Amino acid sequence: MKDMYELVIKNGNVVLPDEVLGLDVGVIAGKIVALGEQLHISPDTKVIDATGLYVLPGMIDMHVHFNEPNFGHWEGFRSGSAALAAGGCTTYADMPLNGNPPTVNKAALILKAEAAAGNSAVDYVLWGGLVPGNLEDLKELSAAGVTGFKAFLSNPGGEGEGRFREVDDDTLYQGMKKIASLGGILALHAESEDITAALSADALRNGLNSARDFAATRPPEAEWEAVARALLYSERTGCRLHFVHISTAAAIGMIYDAKQRGLDVSAETCPHYLILNETHMEDLGPVAKCAPPLRSVEEQEKLWEVLAQGKIDLIASDHSPCPTELKVAHGLSFAEAWGGISGAQSSLELMFHEGVNVRGLPITLISQLLSGLPAKRFGLQDRKGSIALGLDADLVLLNPQHSYTLAAEDLKYRHKHSPYMGMTLSCKVAATICRGTVVYTAEDGVVSADSGQWLQVRGGIK
Ligand SMILES: NC(=O)NC(NC(N)=O)C(=O)[O-]
Ligand SMILES: [Zn+2]
Ligand SMILES: [Zn+2]
């Protein structure tokens, strides 16, 4: 008896962990059940012809800020996940800040989960927060299925009483001990508050508010000091760490060396540190403002070097959107504008375009950074991150020859701004499939806006 596949993706160049093979992919009940040549097509099989296309595992974006509950006017699960689907992402991780309340206790996690339920095009996990005063909430958050905890070493910005706050050293140390005892993982925004606050205050006093002035308030040293301190705490507490949005090769090197010494730590960088540099920040203005800031061309090149050497653990977008008027408004200085880049829709296309087409890196390396490695780091590898038998059929079809110029109308974000607008990319996502369901096609747009599920998988824990 022949297998009755529900879906067969035919004739694609299938990106496996170590090689690319011309294969068909057979799907039953949302799972990959066959990889082979000329898979049998029955009358009920839906067939997608992927001739000339790459078939990659869907991206796993471990770092997005969707602002619900209560800040959906910045970005919501619907719009944000639609953008991710259009960009070839099939699982994402929502950060615990920028919604109100922030996800720092179980009640807030429930509100977050309710906002997401039935509103996501693709699957997701949720981060909880570590903030001053919530040590007693970590256990419950962990039991409720957060993927891990996130803390800021520098001021996260935002307004209001209940906003997400950075940790002091004592909270960090105690929090890491607690998280270690729970078998959890801590994600860190690693910039020194002492250094960035002092330099920012100086800049304000002296009326220095240009793009370059902003970058000077958050120098590489602020990252290096914070990374070094956190690595020391990791060594002393045994707490696993994930460093988000690392912007310098030297910090990647520190984290890599710590890994070689046996620490359970990992480093993420973002497409914007690889694709953009401080000249973009000057030319594009606040749309390219983020923290840590975009760096020099030399730093950017060094980051590509460590990426090619396999020293970076994963790539995530750090999509941190806001209403356009917080980026561009009459009289708004660079210093006052919102810090955070809207970019999640473009991660895979940017990395393929620049990494594979321009710089000639292996597509398998780029695919690992976007899918395989984040799955492994965060305990999703039994279901996601690779094209392999038995795993979820989370797939993206990429046309490596479809060149286009990114325009505002392409963007699915709540607010149609991004530093990548106007950029010509040499590839385009043709379709995105989540657990066997086609959620996006280039022709029809987002065709399934609500089939995503919350994966209550605690990072790295079986
Ligand atoms: N509150 C934020 O969304 N902050 C984010 N902002 C950036 N990266 O500029 C972040 O992840 O630090
Ligand atoms: Zn951050
Ligand atoms: Zn972030």
Automatic annotation (TrEMBL):
UniProt PTM: Carboxylation allows a single lysine to coordinate two zinc ions.
N6-carboxylysine found at: K150
Reaction it catalyzes: (S)-allantoin + H2O = allantoate + H(+)
Keyword Zinc: yes
Alphabetical GO biological process terms: allantoin catabolic process; purine nucleobase catabolic process
Cofactor(s) listed in the protein's UniProt record: Zn(2+)
Binding site for Zn(2+) 1: H63, H65, K150, D318
Domain Amidohydrolase-related, chain residue ranges per copy: 54-439
Binding site for Zn(2+) 2: K150, H189, H245
GO molecular function, one term: zinc ion binding
Known EC number: 3.5.2.5
Pathway(s) where this gene product acts: Nitrogen metabolism; (S)-allantoin degradation; allantoate from (S)-allantoin: step 1/1
GO cellular component: cytoplasm
Statement: the UniProt record of this protein carries the keyword Transmembrane: no
SUPFAM superfamilies attached to this UniProt entry: Composite domain of metallo-dependent hydrolases, Metallo-dependent hydrolases
Transmembrane parts of this sequence: none
Family: Belongs to the metallo-dependent hydrolases superfamily. Hydantoinase/dihydropyrimidinase family. Belongs to the metallo-dependent hydrolases superfamily. DHOase family. Class I DHOase subfamily.
Name by which UniProt lists this protein: Allantoinase
Organism: Paenibacillus monticola
Encoding gene (name): allB
